[in-house]
From TrEMBL:
Assigned protein family: Belongs to the peptidase S1C family.
Parts of the chain that traverse the membrane: 32-56
The protein, known as: Endopeptidase
Keyword terms: Hydrolase, Membrane, Protease, Serine protease, Transmembrane, Transmembrane helix
Annotated source species: Ligilactobacillus pabuli
Domain of life: Bacteria
Record InterPro entries: Chloro_Bact_Ser_Proteases (IPR051201), PDZ (IPR001478), PDZ_sf (IPR036034), Peptidase_S1_PA (IPR009003), Peptidase_S1_PA_chymotrypsin (IPR043504), Peptidase_S1C (IPR001940)
Length: 440
């Protein structure tokens, strides 16, 4: 077999011929030349020479030698060196600058008594409070301290649906936390705690200035508070990776632009900081890719963090208003993909080259599109400087703007391409920012 040939999982038997010893060990027995080769290889490995094969087999048959000499206890003892080694690295220095600002976040939600067997039979009152609670754990980072109050940022999915939230500090103190605000679109939440035991506050770095290949440190509580303030090290694998985001029901809710890193991120790291070598927060760890494709191929070293510049913008709104204000169009809509080719031609009167967009099915009375003349069965193909292909891309284009801004909308009306300048005066409610609704 040549070096370029690959073993296909099955040896092919050699037909007897000139210069090839016959197989004398039966139909399935080993060939003599194969036995010789195995012996030679064993000899080379065992003794460094061909004759080592004999020594190897001979030694295998001998019993282990008995102890022939007693060793004095003093001669067998060892000890730990008294030499003090001072280890300093960028990673350890960065960790020391932020470690006391990283916390574990414990969220508690009371279990529905009717969902348990005891509840079905009217025995739910016998359960204790602890038995009637379910908990989820994540991480967070203290980013601001004002007087007796400190603010913690974490992921929205860590505290979503919780009736009670507690913070476990790095020094072991456990504090009650109140939710200041949370946002399902960005997956961020802000908590408020007593600042009595806060000794360190994290600093946000500029995520626009990071470079691919630079050191990235993830700090948090993988698998829960038993492993609190764990540090893992990797690099920035990509500065701006666009990934699809789904809600708990598996429905696509949009896309997110995130930092990709190969620093180990595990369940429980959610909400913890991704840190640079200066100890600055450059992202909030949010998710990891553990499998890909329909085959469920295992994936390693692909974690994602919300960039710090976006985090700062969101948490400032949450701390001030308790929510993030985003514009809405006030329409019911449908992806063009769901419209048959005959309806595209007869009802929408679209040119054949228009193959993507969203169809306006209804314009609400308070919609800013109403004054612009956009009506039912119009097809929106662009918003601002972004192309609109479907509901997800429309949402991304819309949320890139703020309430009060005027944007240009490109659409088709009765087969004719038109543009309209629309002032975004309507605010999206929580219902159509947290799910892939057919209303925007």
């Amino acid at each position: 077999m040549s070096q370029n040939e690959q073993f296909d999982g099955e040896y092919q038997e050699v037909e007897p011929g000139h210069g090839t010893p016959q197989n004398t060990g039966g139909p399935r027995g080993p060939k003599l030349w194969q036995t010789i080769i195995v012996a030679l290889v064993a000899g080379i490995i065992g003794g460094g020479a061909v004759v080592g094969g004999y020594a190897y087999h001979e030694n295998q048959s001998k019993p282990a030698p008995k102890q022939t000499q007693k060793v004095k206890k003093a001669e067998a003892k060892t000890k730990v060196s008294h030499l003090n080694v001072k280890v300093s690295s960028d990673a350890s220095d960065a960790f020391n600058k932020i470690k006391n600002a990283v916390v574990s976040v414990e969220a508690y939600a009371k279990e529905d008594p009717n969902s348990s067997i005891a509840g079905m039979y009217g025995d739910s009152g016998k359960e204790t409070e602890s038995e009637a609670e379910q908990t989820s754990e994540g991480s967070g980072v203290i980013y601001k301290k004002t007087g007796n109050t400190a603010f913690v940022v974490t992921n929205n999915h860590v505290i979503s649906g919780a009736d009670r939230v507690e913070i476990l500090m790095n020094d072991g103190h456990k504090l009650s936390a109140s939710v200041v605000g949370h946002d399902s679109v960005s997956d961020l939440a802000v908590l408020k705690i007593d600042a009595k035991y806060v000794t360190q506050v994290a600093e946000f770095g500029n995520s626009d200035k990071i470079t691919v290949g630079e050191t990235a440190l993830a700090i948090g509580s993988p698998l829960g508070s038993d492993y609190a303030t764990s540090l893992t090290q990797g690099i920035v694998s990509a500065k701006k990776r666009t990934i699809d985001v789904t809600n708990s029901a598996g429905v696509a809710t949009g896309q997110a632009t995130v930092i990709q890193t190969d620093a180990a991120i595990n369940p429980g790291n959610s909400g913890g900081p991704l840190v640079n070598v200066a100890g600055q927060v450059i992202g909030i760890n949010s998710m990891k890719l553990s499998s890909a494709g329909s085959s469920g191929t295992s994936v390693e070293g692909m974690g994602f963090a919300i960039p710090s510049n976006e985090v700062v913008e969101i948490v400032n709104q949450l701390a001030t208003n308790g929510k993030v204000s985003r514009p809405a169009l006030g329409i019911s809509l449908l992806d063009l993909d769901y419209i048959s080719s005959s309806d595209r031609k007869k009802t929408l009167k679209l040119p054949e080259n228009v193959t993507s967009g969203i169809v306006v099915m209804k314009v609400n009375d308070d919609s800013p599109l109403k004054a612009a003349g956009i009506s039912r069965y119009d097809v929106i193909t662009g918003l601002g400087d972004k192309q609109v292909k479907d509901i997800v891309s429309l949402r991304e284009a819309l949320y890139a703007h703020k309430i009060g801004e005027t944007v240009k909308i490109k659409y088709y009306h009765n087969g004719q391409e038109k543009t309209a300048n629309v002032k975004l005066s309507l605010e999206a409610n929580d219902a159509n920012t947290s799910t892939a609704s057919n209303e925007r």
